[in-house]
Task: structure prediction
Amino acid sequence: MPFVNIRIVKQVIEHDPEGIKDKVQSAVTDSIAEAVGIPKENVWVTFEEVDETDWFAGGARVKELRAGA
Result:
């Protein structure tokens, strides 16, 4: 049974967390089920929301990177 853990910056999805998570999990579930040839019910997906101040990339906080983008 595949288990997928998705970490995401919570501020990126804050405008519609349930809707975005549903779309992402659906696409991931469908892709894995099709690629492996198993029923969708056998694919488990979880989300971990990480605050943008607690996530770093290249030594910079994601909050700072998002502000400069």
Observations:
- Residues 3-68 form a domain with the Macrophage Migration Inhibitory Factor fold (CATH 3.30.429.10).
- The helical segments are 10-13, 17-36, 62-68.
